[in-house]
Design a protein that fits this description.
Radius of gyration: 24 Å
Shape: elongated
Number of helices: 16
Helix content: 40-55%
Distance between the termini: 57 Å
Strand content: 5-15%
Structural class: alpha/beta
Mean pLDDT: 96
Order of helices and strands: EHEHHEEHEHEHEHEHHHHEHEEHEHHEHE
Low-confidence stretches: none
Bound molecules: ligand SAJ
Length: 420
C-alpha cells in the first residue's frame, strides 16, 4: 500500500493514544496529539511522559525532535483523526459513551470534506453509526462520502505496547470499503503485521469477541480453582497436567480479572441482552472472586490484625491498577477492621509503600494479589522475621510452598484444596 505523509490528529493520549501518536510520527506523518486533560498536554509539551512503557520514550522523543509530533489543547483541522479515548461502563454496567461522543464532537467541529475518522476505542457493535456518525451528519457531512469512518481496535498489552502496535495483525472495519482502504493506508505505514479488512460492526464485534473469549476462559480457570478447593485437589497441578493435552490450554485462576478491558468489554457485548448465558455468569464469577479471596484471608487471621497486600497492579510487572483485585480485597478487609498495608514495586499511589520491610512489619498475614516477578523469589525466612504470625495467602499460585512452610509459614493457595 502506498506510503504518503498525512496530517494526523490522535485524540486521547493514554496507554494507546500516546504510543500510537509517537509511532505515527516516527513513520513520517505529521501528528498532533490532543487530550482533554490540559495538564497532560503541558507535561507532554515539556517532553515528559505521563506513564512508563518500554520503548515509548525513544520513539516519543524522536517524534518531538523531528518536529513531526506536537501537542495541542485544541483539536486541529486534520486529514485523519484517530480517536483513542476511554469507554468505561456506567454504574449499571452499560457502555458509557460520554468520552467518545465528546471527542467525536470536538473532531466534528474541525473535520473537513475528505477527513478520515478512525475509532480505536472499544465500543459496542453499531456504536460508530449510532453515537459518532450523527455528530458529523448534523453538520451536513455525508458519511462515507464527505467524511470517512473506520474502526480499528487495538490488541496490545501493557509492557509490550510499542512492539505489539508494530507487529500485531490488525482488523479494520470501514463504513464503506473505501473507508476501510483509506484507513488501511495509514495503518500499513507502521504495522508490520497483516491487516484484515471487514465492515464497521464486524470490527467492533471482533474486539469484544477477543476479550470475551479470554475473560470466559479465565473465569473457567477460576471455577476449576473453586471446585478443586472443595475436592481437596490442587488446581495448579491439574492445569499443568491437562495442558499437556495438545489442544487444551487452561489459563490461570486468580483473585479477579482487573484492568480496563476484560472485566469491562464483555458487558458491551451484552448491551441489550439480559444476562443469563456463559458471558454474564463468567463476569459475575469474576466479581465474586474478590469476596471469596477476602473470606479466605479472614479465615486465616483474627480481626484487627495487620495484613500486608503484595501487589495492587491488575497484572504482573505493570503499573496500572485499574479494577485492581489487590485494592478491592484490601478494602473489604479494612471494613472488617483489619489493618491493611499495600506494597507494589510498579504502582505509584498514596496507599502504596515501596519498602517491603515496612509493609510486612508486625503483619499476621501476607496476601500475594499480583504475580509480579519479584514476588516469586521473596525469601520467606527474611520476610517472616518481623511478622507477628507467619501466614501467607498466595492468590496467584506463584510461591514455592515447601520453602515457605520450611520458613514456618502456614500456607494457603487459591485453588489448592486442603488435602491438595
Ligand atoms: N489473568 C488471570 N489469569 C490469566 C491471565 C490473566 O487471572 O491466565 C488476569 C490478569 O491478572 C489481569 C486480567 O486477567 O488482572 C487481564 O489481564 P490480561 O493479560 O488477560 O489482559 P489485558 O487486560 O492486559 O489485555 C487484554 C488483551 N486481550 C487479549 O488477550 C484477548 C490485550 O490483547 C488487549 O489489547 C487488551 O485486553 C485490551 O486493551 O483490550
Amino acid at each position: 500500500m502506498k506510503k504518503e505523509s498525512k496530517n494526523i490528529c490522535v485524540v486521547g493520549l493514554g496507554y494507546i493514544g500516546l504510543p500510537t501518536a509517537s509511532i505515527l510520527a516516527s513513520s513520517g506523518h505529521y501528528v498532533v496529539g490532543y487530550d482533554i486533560e490540559e495538564k497532560k498536554i503541558n507535561l507532554l509539551s515539556e517532553g515528559s511522559l505521563p506513564f512508563k512503557e518500554p520503548g515509548l520514550k525513544t520513539i516519543f522523543e524522536g517524534g518531538v525532535k523531528s518536529g513531526r509530533l506536537k501537542f495541542s489543547k485544541e483539536v486541529p483541522q486534520s486529514d485523519v483523526y484517530i480517536i483513542c479515548v476511554q469507554t468505561p461502563l456506567t454504574p449499571s454496567k452499560k457502555p458509557d459513551m460520554r468520552f467518545l461522543k465528546g471527542a467525536a464532537e470536538r473532531v466534528a467541529e474541525k473535520a473537513k470534506k475528505g477527513s478520515l475518522v478512525v475509532i480505536e476505542s472499544t465500543v459496542y457493535p453499531g456504536a460508530t453509526e449510532r453515537e459518532v456518525i450523527p455528530l458529523f451528519e448534523k453538520r451536513g457531512f455525508k458519511a462515507g462520502k464527505d467524511v470517512l469512518f473506520a474502526h480499528c481496535p487495538e490488541r496490545v498489552i501493557p509492557g509490550k505496547i510499542i512492539k505489539e502496535l508494530i507487529e500485531n495483525d490488525r482488523v479494520i472495519g470501514g463504513f464503506t470499503e473505501r473507508c476501510a482502504r483509506r484507513a488501511g493506508e495509514i495503518y500499513s505505514s507502521f504495522v508490520e503485521g497483516r491487516i484484515y479488512f471487514t465492515d464497521l460492526r464486524s470490527a467492533e464485534m471482533v474486539k469484544l469477541a477477543e476479550n470475551t473469549f479470554r475473560m470466559v476462559n479465565i473465569a473457567l480457570a477460576m471455577e476449576f480453582a473453586l471446585l478443586c478447593e472443595e475436592s481437596g485437589i490442587n488446581v495448579w497441578e491439574i492445569i499443568k497436567l491437562a495442558n499437556y493435552h495438545p489442544r487444551v490450554n487452561i489459563l490461570n485462576p486468580g483473585p479477579g480479572m482487573g484492568g480496563h478491558c476484560l472485566p469491562v468489554d464483555p458487558y458491551f457485548m451484552l448491551r441489550e441482552q439480559k444476562g443469563e448465558g456463559i458471558i454474564w455468569n463468567s463476569l459475575k464469577l469474576n466479581e465474586r472472586m474478590i469476596d471469596y479471596c477476602a473470606s479466605k484471608a479472614k479465615k486465616m487471621v483474627k480481626r484487627g490484625r495487620k495484613i500486608a497486600v503484595l501487589g495492587v497492579a491488575y497484572k504482573k510487572d505493570v503499573d496500572d491498577y485499574r479494577n485492581s483485585p489487590g485494592f478491592s480485597i484490601g478494602e473489604i478487609l479494612e471494613e472488617e477492621e483489619y489493618k491493611i498495608s499495600y506494597h507494589d514495586p510498579y504502582v505509584e499511589h498514596k496507599k502504596v509503600v515501596k519498602n517491603l520491610d515496612e509493609v510486612i512489619k508486625t503483619a499476621s498475614l501476607v496476601i500475594i494479589a499480583t504475580d509480579h516477578s519479584i514476588y516469586r523469589n521473596i525469601d520467606p525466612e527474611i520476610l517472616g522475621k518481623d511478622m507477628i504470625e507467619k501466614n501467607v495467602l498466595d492468590l496467584r499460585g506463584i510461591i514455592n510452598i515447601s520453602r515457605w512452610e520450611k520458613a514456618g509459614f502456614k500456607v494457603a493457595v487459591l485453588g489448592r484444596g486442603s488435602k491438595g
